[in-house]
Amino acid sequence: MKALLPICLLLVTIIFAAEPPKPQWKAGAAIAKITPEKMIWMAGYAARTKPAEGVEQDLFAKALVIEDHLGSKFALITTDLVGVPRNVRLFVAEQVQKRYGIDAAHLAINASHTHSGPELRTSRLYGTDDPPRRE
Fold it and tell me: Is residue 102 within 8 Å of 65, Cβ to Cβ?
């Protein structure tokens, strides 16, 4: 019986002296191919007189979402685009809010500024409102 008391005291000390659990952070990542399926106008080529003629390398969008131990989420999206027009950013922010509950204030969208990607602007396209280019 006397030998059991020190063992019980040791176990109680170990249990209550253990470090409290550390806050958990979570992270998730995804990648999506965004290469247009049809040949469209390329961004940053004002002297071009026709749409792209082929695909040499695919274009991608990548996302990283981080959630802190309190449940707050932040999303970073990178794209192989020359830029992200306001209407695209607003649409993406709305979808991210609906699907994942991430507020637009916690969303950053970045463009690599490649001139090998599609032209996404629908106005002022190369200084013209040429309907075939807007198609």
Answer: yes
**Residue 76, domain extent:** 23-134
pTM for this entry = 0.73
Q: Which helix (H) or strand (E) holds 98?
A: helix 86-100
Q: Exposed, middle or buried, 64 (CB in 10 Å: 0-12/13-18/19+)? A: middle
Tens of pLDDT along 41-95? 888 777 778 888 888 899 999 999 999 999 999 999 999 999 999 999 999 999 9
Buried b (16+ CB within 10 A) or exposed e, 20-29: eeeeeeeeee
Q: Is residue 1, in this structure, part of any structural domain at all?
A: no
Type of residue at 61: A
